[in-house]
Amino acid sequence: MENMNEYIFGNKVVKGQDLEKEKAENFLCHFKNSPINFKEDGLEKTAEEIKVLNDFNDFLGEEFEEMNLPFKDVPQDRIIFLNSESFDKLGEKEFKTALYDNYNNVIVANHGYEEWESKRLFWYKAILHEMIHFVSFQKNLLIKKEDNRTQINNLRVGYRGRGKEVKNDIFKGFNEGMTDLIVMDILKKHKEELALDFNISKEEEEEFISTKKQFYEYAFFINDLIKRIAEKTDKDEGEVWKKMKEGCFTGEMMHLREIERVLGKDSLKILSRLGYSDEENKKVYDFFKLDRD
Ligand SMILES: [Zn+2]
Model's pTM, two decimal places? Predict the structure, then answer.
């Protein structure tokens, strides 16, 4: 049995057999194989886009400071804007606007829609969402294959745990809902500043606020969970929220046991299945609707 080495870089963990530190660190900042040539296919960003991304990095930095965690900016060359033709090469079915590619450690956004201009707030919101995945707690396992190539298994991003089989992929919906709640919290905190800097009109803001976002349902559901936990444990809602938010970036999940204690046996297991299919989501919602007192 070869030695299993584990290296920690901020809130990123990379482990592997006989793995050297340099190789582990390289994994976090090197492009791997992809149908996209990230450097060449990436569109040049406008001055506004560069400023938005800088602001988002600042906002995330403030969040990390509050949590007493070290922060590293999401490098702008790790946020790739593509035209639709290039984006389609990724063969992505689930996400049409932007995605975080853990394998290449890169954020890819589809700049090809005409709405990019008219609905910029939605696009910027989608990119902030992916930036949160980028700076979330992560754990990766590098496996040396017989032909000497390295296989990368992503074990965790934020709350989402990945296993070899689909049934071992857990907390996907919970992680997406949490990520969107963090996005909305950050945008709300910096609302005035953003409105001034980017000339956001009242109509533009209203449209953004009143439109249901992609993970609206999960976010709404988690908000409700937080309320119920706070109520039943006599804690402040803000305190429960803070712990949940921190877990996304530290990987700490112990506090989720509170859900089990407060909302009943099996509730965590059931919650972990949110986000995989309409059928599984329904089961989750049905379960949590029950008054389990
Ligand atoms: Zn996401």
Answer: 0.93
Handedness of CA 115, 121, 126, 130 (dihedral sign): positive
Q: Output the CA 1–ligand 1 centroid distance in Å.
A: 37
CA of 135 to the centre of ligand 1 (A): 12
Tokens of 76: 């702008």
Q: How far is the CA of 219 from the centre of ligand 1 (A)?
A: 12
Instruction: State the distance from the centre of ligand 1 to the C-alpha of 64, rounded, in angstroms.
Output: 19
Pair of tokens at residue 254: 């112990």
Taking the centre of ligand 1 as the mean of its atom positions, its distance from the CA of residue 239, in whole angstroms, is 24
Say which DSSP state 19 is in. Answer: -
DSSP category for residue 44: P
Half-sphere exposure of 6 (CA within 13 A, CB side): 7
Domain boundaries along the sequence of the chain: 4-210, 216-289
98-101 and 4-9 as β-strands: parallel, antiparallel, unpaired? unpaired
pLDDT tens, residue by residue, 215-232: 889 999 999 999 999 999
